[in-house]
Amino acid sequence: MAGIYDFNAKALEAELKEFGLRKTWLRILVTHLSDKSQFEYILSNPKFKGIKKRESDLIADLSIGDVSVLYEYSVAIADSESRKSNGQFFTPDDVAIYMAEQSQAFGDGVWLDPCSGIGNLSWHLTAIQENPEDFLFNRMILSDRDELALLIARTLFTVSFQKKRKRLFEEIETNFVSFDFLSVADSGSLELFETTTQLSKIPAHDFVIVNPPYLATDIDGRFETAKAGDLYAYFLENIIKTSRGFISITPQSFTNAGKFASLRKLLLDNFENLTIYTFDNVPANIFKGIKFGSKNSNQANSIRASIVIAREGKGKRRITSLIRWRSSERETLFKSLEKFLSDVPLTDSYFPKVSKDYKKLYMWVKDFGTLGDMCSSKTTKYSLHVPSAPRYFIPALKKPVQRASQKTLYFRSSEDRDYAYLLINSSFMYWWWRVRDGGMTLSLETITSLPLLDFEVDPKIVAALEKSEKINKVYKQNAGAAQENVKHPKDLMKRLNQSVIPDYAELLITLHENSEFSK
Q1: What is the DSSP secondary structure assignment for residue 481, as one 8-state letter?
Q2: Most exposed residue of 162, 193, 280, 456, measured as fewest CB within 10 angstroms of its CB?
Q3: Residue 459 — very low, low, confident or very high, per pLDDT cuts 50/70/90?
Q4: Do 184 and 242 touch, CB atoms closer than 8 A?
Q5: How many CB atoms lie within 10 A of CB 24?
Q6: Are strands 406-411 and 382-387 parallel, antiparallel or unpaired?
Q7: Helix axes 120-127, 93-102, angle to 10 degrees
Q8: CA distance 315 to 271
């Protein structure tokens, strides 16, 4: 059949409308098994009783990731509100393969995927083993609240990995556990759970591979990370406290947002061997698909993601910058991730997203005084206006622009304002935002945390920036309205960088490129 992103969904939508989610997918599975004689025994299972096959095998030759797309799409069609409330995005095959490959450094042990869906991560983890069938039987546990997803996973895993065992589908039934991972929590003790076989407790395991739900939720006082108010933080807390190590993909927001300080502390308290890759969402995105079930007019998945590899024992803590790449460079990206890592200090306050090339700069400026020291807490006539939604640039403007949101800074004198005018407009501010934040908006906290550099204010550059404000306006549509901004020309930016931070001027200007591989 055609590629998954060219898939004609009308037939599937009609079937979902006629049969509902469960029966539609049981029909898909029965059809997929019907021409495979070694799996006839699966069709005798009571779960498939009375299910008739379709005219064609909808998932023939699809990867596990492609099947995940179809299932997520089906859930969105069947119940978009439920899909939206789950806050979960399937893991693309290439991401799952990369994460699975990292498991080879963990040693022997039982792996748990605590919110598996139909098992993309677990499938690739199993597939890379020397004996996948034995690994699946002895060392792989999938759990999820979605019983149908688990049944689909068990069926597909059996088709993929059954070799010597003639009734693998039945033998691995207890490896697929219907369980709510957040139904249990810790009030402070690392001894979270009693040893028991009851499904009300987390299945025994050594390591975890996970793509948890990303969803803001009510503060849950059962968790040490309660202030985060996000499901993925609660998942990671339980994982940290019950495993010897894990591999996860989550939003990168935990690296900097104040509400995730307790999660950062948990990571630092429990793992000396910690590797964190962080990814921008433009021009390409780790999650290649769309946001199923979203009512937003922007259907692209805009998550800035992070892959975390936490291992027991001695080791280094390393992190990357927010890596940026083009869609055509995706394969190169996964082959090149190691080169972006640096061992800058990680603290409870924030995890600085700094690549190897910028480590020296970060170590130089991290303890400098900050722009907040120069700002006035009172309204003065010396102000600068900073648009709140960074793109490939961050300007500071002497006159506000027509847009929904911008931050206003006040200064005690024109000299202080003009110093800040140059500092914020330079590439140094853009770099610092990517180190300290990198989210959808630019916070006042990030702006005021900008380190103060030692340079003389050049009145000619001030004048050039003032002129540029008038003639270099740009516009972007958002929510049906044009959002005004200013994008200074590259030649002016180079001149500004040379004045503000000459030793790093050439390096910093490359930050405005749309790919790490264009530098």
Answers
A1: E
A2: 456
A3: very high
A4: no
A5: 21
A6: antiparallel
A7: 50
A8: 9
Chain CA centroid to CA 400, Å: 33
Q: Which helix (H) or strand (E) holds 332?
A: helix 330-336
The tokens for 418 are 């003009």
Enumerate the H helices of 359-489 as residue ranges: 359-365, 414-425, 427-436, 444-448, 459-471
User: How many helices, marked H, and strands, marked E, lie in the chain?
Assistant: 19, 12
**Among 95, 473, 121, 99, which Cα is nearest to 284's?**
95
Q: What is the rounded distance in angstroms from the CA atom of residue 382 to the CA atom of residue 417?
A: 6
Question: What is the separation, in whole angstroms, between the first and last Cα of the chain?
Answer: 39
Pairing of strands 207-210, 176-178: unpaired
- What pLDDT, in 10s, does the model give residues 83-127? 555 666 789 999 999 999 999 999 999 999 999 999 999 999 999
Helices 64-78 and 93-102, interaxial angle, to 10°?
120
Q: Which residues pair with 246 in a beta bridge?
A: 208, 310
- Pairing mode of beta strands 382-387, 317-323: unpaired
Residue 454: Cβ-neighbour burial (10 angstroms; 0-12, 13-18, 19+): exposed
* Phi, psi angle pair for 410, to nearest 5°: -120, 145
Tokens read off for 200? 């009300």
Separation between Cα atoms, residue 418 and residue 461, nearest integer Å: 10
Say what the pTM is.
0.93
**Eight-state DSSP code of residue 106:** S
Q: How far apart are CA 461 and CA 447, in angstroms?
A: 21
Helix, strand, or coil (residue 179) = coil
Domain locations in the chain?
90-359, 371-518
Residue with the two structure tokens 């910058």: 321
| Closest residue by Cα to residue 2 from 70, 72, 52 | 70
* Domain 90-359, second-level architecture: 3-Layer(aba) Sandwich (3.40)
Interval 146-197: pLDDT, tens: 999 999 999 999 999 999 999 999 999 999 999 999 988 865 544 444 433 3
Please answer whether residues 509 and 417 qualify as being in contact, where contact means their C-beta atoms are separated by less than 8 angstroms: no
Per-residue b or e along 100-128, where b marks 16 or more CB atoms closer than 10 Å to that residue's CB: bebbeebeeebbbbbbbbbbbbbbbbbbe
Three-state SS at 224: coil
Q: Beta partners for 322?
A: 278
Q: Which two tokens stand for residue 71?
A: 């299932």
Number of C-beta neighbours around residue 282 at 10 A: 14
pLDDT at residue 439, as a whole number: 87
Structure tokens at 193: 């759970």
Q: Determine the Cα–Cα distance for residues 487 and 485; give it in Å rounded to an integer.
A: 7
Looking at 103-216, list the stretches that DSSP marks H as alpha helix, in order from N- to C-terminal side: 120-127, 132-139, 147-161, 168-171
Over residues 332-375, the pLDDT tens digits come to: 999 999 999 999 999 999 999 999 999 999 999 999 999 999 99
Q: Tokens representing 194?
A: 């009693």
Token readout for 479 is 């929510």
- Report the alpha-carbon distance of residue 161 to residue 315 in Å, rounded: 34
What mean pLDDT do residues 282-289 have? 86
Residue 328's DSSP bridge partners are none
